[in-house]
Amino acid sequence: MADYSDSVFINCPFDDDYRGLFRAIVFTIYVCGFFPRCAMEEDDALDNRINKILKIIDECKFGIHDISRTEPNPEGYPRFNMPFELGVFFGCKHYGVNKNKVGLVFERTKYSYQQTLSDLNGIDTKAHNNNYENVITQIVNWLKTSSKRTNIPGYQSVIASFDKFEEDLPNILADTGLTIEKMTFNDLAYIIEQWISVKS
Asked: What is the pLDDT of residues 13-63, one digit of tens each?
């Protein structure tokens, strides 16, 4: 398990439409020398989801939160998971044992959060416009600034590496008997780790 100061909690949608952005997030975290964590890493029927999230947040100094998906589903219900987990992260930062937490908050378009989460007014959110290059650029710059580490590659280099990874991914999946649709978070993490190890 990675150290607290290397761990990044990912709070984002896990649906099919977000899958490409999610791969970009996980890939960027690894390439920058950090370790991604999310609720999808464990599958324990005896542990409820909120307990897993609380445990993971407690173990992560950094948190990436995408609150761009609050629109109603076909049944008319909005999604509150991402704003809720962002609130838990804020609470841990102010009231928890580890108060040096650092967060990056994504939204689809700048200031759209003000329509649904006005308590965040004054927070410097980042808009990704559903573009993976924007996601990578913002994460790289945020990790450089927040961690003050000098060995993090530039965002253009990370984008180029991710493009190459995406080109290689279909063959990797074919070799391992996996599919994009059924690949678990742990499958993705292992594939990225191995790809980076070979390329470096």
From this structure: 888 889 999 999 999 999 999 999 999 887 665 567 888 999 999 999 999
Coil/strand/helix, residue 167: helix
R_g (Cα) of the chain, nearest Å = 17
- What gap in Å lies between CA 132 and CA 21, rounded to an integer? 5
> Tokens 């975290």 appear where?
29
User: How deeply is 150 buried, as exposed, middle or buried, from its count of CB atoms within 10 A (0-12, 13-18, 19+)?
Assistant: exposed
Q: How many CA atoms lie within 13 A of 12 on its CB side?
A: 33
Length of the chain: 200
Instruction: For each of the domains in the chain, give its residue range(s) and CATH number, in order of start.
Output: 4-199 (3.40.50.10140)
What whole-number distance in Å separates Cα of residue 33 and Cα of residue 149?
Answer: 10
Cα gap 174→181, rounded to integer Å? 13
Is residue 167 a contact partner of residue 161, using CB atoms and an 8 Å limit? no
Residue 25 CB partners (closer than 8 Å, separation 6+) = 10, 12, 36, 64, 135, 139
Helix (H, G, I), strand (E, B) or coil at 160: helix
- Residue 51 CA to residue 54 CA, distance in Å, equals 5
Phi then psi for 107, rounded to 5 degrees?
Answer: -140, 170
| Beta-bridge partners for 199 | none
From 28-32, 79-83, 88-92, 186-190, the region with the lowest mean pLDDT: 79-83
